[in-house]
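Sample intake sheet
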Amino acid sequence: MDTDSRSTDPNHNLHVSLLLIALVLLAGAQMLASLVQRDFGYVDVSNVFYTNYNGIPLRAKLLKPRHATKNRPLPGVVYIHGYQNNRETGDAYCIELARRGIVVLNIDAIGRGNSGLPGDVDKPDFDTTYGGKSSLAYLRSLPFVDAEATGMVGHSLGAEMAYRIALEDPKVRGLVITGFAYTLDASPTLPHNMLMIIGKWDEFRDRMTGTRDIEKEWMTTPQTRKVIPFPHPKPGVTYGDFAKGTARRVVIPRTIHVQESHNAPAIAEAMVWMRKALQPPENLWIDAKDQIWQIKEWATLIGMLAGLFSLLPMPVAPCPISSLWW
């Protein structure tokens, strides 16, 4: 006798409906995340592949505003993520920069994501910037990027790489470091136009800054006295001159290390800073508080949960022994 197992499962239709709902949520969430990443059609997003100076392959996400053309190149920025991460952790900054008329190269640092392995640290061609230097050269080579208006942004270890590159390359016109602190290697003029963002409760503040209370101590350290040669400098105040490359600012949001890459006030600070340092077209400027990256983050979370839910096994009534062909 052939028995339809569905007839013994009164919840079969419910199970199928839940599966369909999960799949629709998965597809819809990913479509929404893609739309936000592309600023609803105003930014082209693509994977790009190129080779580091020592032959190691690099992969990056290129966010190109539609207004960027060979005849009208726009400023460009390289973003470098932190340790044990990949390029997606920098999406919040990158999406918002691209929305405001800046071409962004969001890289998988060497040894992370889909870029190649770093190789032997003892070799003379070992890249201590993990692809950052070659990525900046690649960005400047793009015909729709203004090679004279480029900057670096990074978080944590990526911020240190961005900082080292900007120290050595005076053509870098703007630098934003998050979750990292400038050192005594910096001066009042190099790196050019430097913004430092570090959370008040950053877990690595002692190692990064040598302080326990950043707000009270950092602005009086030898590093700050050298980099910001003004009497009694304070956080949240801009010193120096963007035109001369001497602009300096320290921002201490109330957050922890991992959240510095997803902190709306910190991102707003970075947007304003790069606007002044790189001067993208004014008609492309959007208020710094107008941010949409959160929609992408929530959409990808919903998509992930829906995908996991769709994989859960559905209860199925046992097949009656009488239905077995043998």
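Comment: The radius of gyration is 24 Å. The first strand starts at residue 43 and ends at 51.
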